[in-house]
Amino acid sequence: MSRMTHPRMAGITVRDMTLDDVPAVGLLEHQLFPIDAWPVQMFLDELSQPETRRYLVAEGGDGIVGYAGLMCIEPIADVQTIAVVPKYEGRGIGSDLLTRLIGEARRRGAADVLLEVRADNPRAQQLYLRFGFEQIHIRPRYYRDGVDALIMRLQLAAETAGGEATEAGSQ
Fold first, then answer.
1. Rounded to an integer, what distance in angstroms lies between the CA atom of residue 118 and that of residue 116?
2. Which of 52, 66, 126, 145 could form a disulfide with 84 if both were Cys (CB 3.0 to 4.6 A apart)?
3. Which residues pair with 28 in a beta bridge?
């Protein structure tokens, strides 16, 4: 478990999700994504595969205020989910969770990190763009309510040691 140090995130900790967290995460999932919420069993199934999965929760005074998950099967990692309670948005929790997932993808040897994001969620899209993700495809009517999914990719293999992207083919 680690304590976030940015002043906006005072009192927030991030740790690995446990089976005991699943009921609370399931409730948040249904509140945050009523149309496309994962069933609780899906979180249980994901946690049962630690060789290819990593799930985190962010906790504050109100309990769990964010969560995120990654699947990594080399050479691809996929952000399965990332969510922050609206009351806690803008405090850097989503950025912290995403940073940790990208770090996990690197540790597991991924060359690319992929994710889907709703076409009608500009706040999330901007977060991913800030991290260097680029839109590579659209999945029409991907979500249950007919909204398209934007497929985004972060190429880890193209990053320098300093974390800056390099152009393909440059030396």
1. 7
2. 66
3. none
Indicate yes or no: pTM above 0.85: yes
User: Residue 85 carries which DSSP code?
Assistant: -
For the record, the structure tokens of 56 come out as: 């985190």
Which residues lie below 8 Å from residue 26, measured CB to CB, with a gap of 6+?
Answer: 38, 39, 40, 43
* Strand residue runs (E) in the chain: 2-3, 13-16, 53-60, 63-73, 76-84, 112-118, 134-139, 149-155
154 neighbors 131 (Cβ within 8 angstroms): yes
pLDDT tens-digit readout, 111-146: 999 999 999 999 999 999 999 999 999 999 999 999
111 within 8 A of 156, measured Cβ to Cβ = yes
Question: Distance (Å, rounded) from C-alpha 92 to C-alpha 121?
Answer: 17
What are the strands of the beta sheet with 149-155, ordered from one edge?
2-3, 13-16, 53-60, 63-73, 76-84, 112-118, 149-155, 134-139
Distance CA 73, CA 61 (A): 35
Pairing of strands 13-16, 63-73: unpaired
**Alpha carbons 171 and 114: distance in angstroms, whole number:** 25
Cis previous bond, 140, omega within 30? no
